[in-house]
Amino acid sequence: MTSGPQPDRQPDPQPDRRPDPQLDPRPDPRPGPETVDLLIGLLEQARARPLPSATTVLAIDGPSGSGKTTLADELIRVLHRREPGTAALVRLEDLYPGWDGLRAATGRLATEVLPALTRGETARYARWDWTADRYGVIQDEVPAKEVTIVEGVGAGALAAAPMVSALVFLDAPEQVRHARAMARDGEGYRPHWERWAAQELAYFAQDRPHERADLLLLPGSVQGRALR
């Protein structure tokens, strides 16, 4: 039994339950503004340096499901809002010649795409038709802009490194990346996961983009030369 009115009880403070983008199993959760601001700052540093190139190239690399595409899309959205018409996007997904084509795509990036863009010319290349399992009739064209964002596994390949102004590498736990990839690409990806992962491991071991990254975005931490 109570005696008299009781003071209003304030609810217990709840912990911040916003998901960590690097641990969230949803398909490539949208990166926070702090992450995008880091990339904007990295781009500004790269653009401030005198470069023998018509474009500043930012490569976003990392294994499948780590969040590269979503991060690149958000970065492009912010750049278009701040500086309309200054940025172009190249997706490695359009360069892979099928499920065994990771290494071939890095060669295409270094010979068919970036040389033209760094000369200030439009890059033209055949896009892979994943449904027909062959090169399609679509010819992709990427115009030369002040900034070029390259995203996908292989974006930080050694063959392309002389033309890359800054490199970002993302990673996340394998189970999180697997869940994201299945949710994003559907069951059609499931039988190819290990096949593709083996190519990723070989590429990472040989080209070691994570060791050369200016920014290394890992679960719960940000590292890299750009922070020093």
Structure overview:
Helix content is 35%, strand content 19%. The protein has helices at residues 33-48, 68-82, 102-118, 174-185, 193-207, 209-212; strands at residues 56-61, 87-91, 123-129, 134-142, 147-151, 166-170, 215-218, 221-223. Strands 2-5-1-6-7-8 form a six-stranded mixed sheet. A two-stranded antiparallel ribbon has the order 3-4. The protein is globular. Residues 1-27 have low confidence and may be disordered.
Walk me through the topology:
Blueprint: H1 33-48, E1 56-61, H2 68-82, E2 87-91, H3 102-118, E3 123-129, E4 134-142, E5 147-151, E6 166-170, H4 174-185, H5 193-207, H6 209-212, E7 215-218, E8 221-223
Parallel strand pairs: 1-5, 1-6, 2-5, 6-7
Antiparallel strand pairs: 3-4, 7-8
Properties at a glance:
8 strands; 6 helices; 19% strand; 6-stranded mixed beta sheet; globular; alpha/beta; two-stranded antiparallel sheet; 35% helix; 228 residues; single chain; disordered N terminus
Distance between the termini: 63 Å
Number of helical elements? 6
Percent of residues in helices: 25-40%
Per the principal axes of the C-alpha atoms, what is the gross shape?
globular
Radius of gyration: 21 Å
Describe the largest sheet: 6 strands, mixed
Uncertain runs are 1-27
What's the mean pLDDT score? Answer: 83
What string, H for helix and E for strand, traces the elements in order?
HEHEHEEEEHHHEE
Output the strand order for the largest sheet: 2-5-1-6-7-8
* Total E-strand runs: 8
Query: Which range does the strand content fall in?
Result: 15-25%
